[in-house]
Design a protein that fits this description.
Blueprint (H helix, E strand, L loop, with lengths): L20 H5 L5 H16 L14 H10 L7
């Protein structure tokens, strides 16, 4: 992508920058558990489960699932 001088790039929230991976890994004992837990929760959200946090940063189910894990609304065992 070429950006002309004076032109500003539009930045959209995609949810994958928040929360950071370092913050998320501190909530679980392994990255594997984090990935599997987030995938399961994202599927539940896609199937119609209620979102457990107010005003999520992300629009996508996987980002919302990661935010729920970070907010400790979902516990991964």
């Amino acid at each position: 992508m070429i950006i002309e001088r004076g032109e500003r790039m539009r930045v959209e929230k995609d949810g994958m920058r928040y929360p950071a991976i370092d913050q998320l890994v501190s909530k679980t004992s392994s990255k594997y558990k984090l990935v599997v837990g987030a995938a399961i929760r994202a599927r539940q959200i896609n199937e119609g489960d209620k979102v457990l946090i107010d005003n999520p940063h992300s629009k996508k189910a996987i980002g919302i699932a990661l935010e729920e894990i970070y907010a400790e609304k979902i516990m991964i065992r």
